[in-house]
């Protein structure tokens, strides 16, 4: 994996996020949320700074980042797309919806389009089972989505 060169100003902002939580290892998840908000993702270099600031191991930070699906070690697109694969969504055709997003965007799950506009991921449950299948793009929720709806949904972000 290529190394990321972090600007000194961003490193200082990251240290301020750590200080906001008194540099306590017990506040790791809150610090990671703040760091991801700051950078958009959590590359290894950010994880190393956090580990140093909170006096915890890099392995511990990495373990938390990889355990929780909210955290990402790869940059996300400006419009992150998530397809719910919970039981209700799955049985109502979420897999076909996902396949259509993959086909149109020409990306796999976990990837970002070449122009950085979209990234594609799956979720276990959005909690809107009555609207199954559900797709989220950023903060926006789309319910009862069919494969035929995908092109129209994407056109809203043209």
UniProtKB/TrEMBL annotation:
[2Fe-2S] cluster binds at residues 84, 89, 125, 129. The keyword Iron applies. Binds 1 [2Fe-2S] cluster. Keywords: 2Fe-2S, Iron, Iron-sulfur, Metal-binding. Its cofactor is [2Fe-2S] cluster. Pfam families: 2Fe-2S_thioredx. InterPro entries: NADP_DH_HndA-like, NuoE-like, NuoE_dom, NuoE_N, Thioredoxin-like_sf. One of its GO terms (molecular function) is 2 iron, 2 sulfur cluster binding. Belongs to the complex I 24 kDa subunit family. This is NADH-quinone oxidoreductase subunit E/NADP-reducing hydrogenase subunit HndA.
